[in-house]
TrEMBL record:
This is NAD(P)H nitroreductase YodC. The gene is yodC_1. Signal peptide: none annotated. It holds the Pfam family Nitroreductase. InterPro entries: Nitroreductase (IPR029479). Belongs to the nitroreductase family. It comes from the Bacteria. Coiled coil: none annotated. GO terms for molecular function: oxidoreductase activity. Keywords: Oxidoreductase.
Amino acid sequence: MSIQVGQAALFTDVVQERHSVRKYDPSWTISREEMAELLQEATLAPSGANLQPWRFLVIDEAELKQKLLPIAFNQEQVVQASAIVAVLGDLKAIDKAEQIYSAAVEAGYMNEQVKAQVLNNLRRFYADPASEAVKRSVLIDGGLVSMQLMLSAKARGYDTVPMAGYDEQALRNALQISDRYAVVMLIAVGKAAQQAHKTVRLPVEEVIFRNAMPEEA
C-alpha cells in the first residue's frame, strides 16, 4: 500500500505536522520500492566532506520485529509500524571515499588535484576509526540524515518516531551489527493509528543567544 500524498506538501506544513507517533496501523505495509525512494530522499542530507557515512538496516519482517520488541523495552511501535529503520554510522566510511570522489570528478564537480588533496586529508582523519573525532562525525551526519528521513516520511503521508530506548548490545547481537558501525537511533515508520501526544516548545527567545553566551546563574 502507498499513501499518494506529500510530494507537493509545503515544507512549513511538513515541519509543523511532524510529530512522534507511537501508535501505528499494523496492517499497513510500505513497499520496499517506496522505502528505498524515501531513504534516497533522506540521503540528500549533508555530511562531512560528503562522505555519506550513514547506513540503513531496514527491519520489515514480522518475526524479526517481534524479536526486537523486548530489546526495545517492549515499545509497541516496534511491531506495529510498517518498518523499523536502524540508522548506523560507518566508522570506516573512508572505504567509500574513492568511489564518491571519482564520481564527482567524472561529473565535473572537481578536478583530480582537488580529489587527491581531499582524499589525503580524509585518510588522515579516518586513520583511527575508533577515535572520538570519527565517532562524533558519523553521529552528527547520522542525526542529519535521520531528521531528513522523518521529514521525507511525513511529506509522503507517513509518520515516524525516533527511538533511543533499546539495549544496544542486544540490538547488535540480534541484528549482527559489528563494531564497525555506530548505532545512531532506531526510527519507526508507518501509518499512524492514533495521533501523537500534544507537546509544547520553549519560547524561541529562551533558546537564542546573540554573539555571546549569558553568564551562568
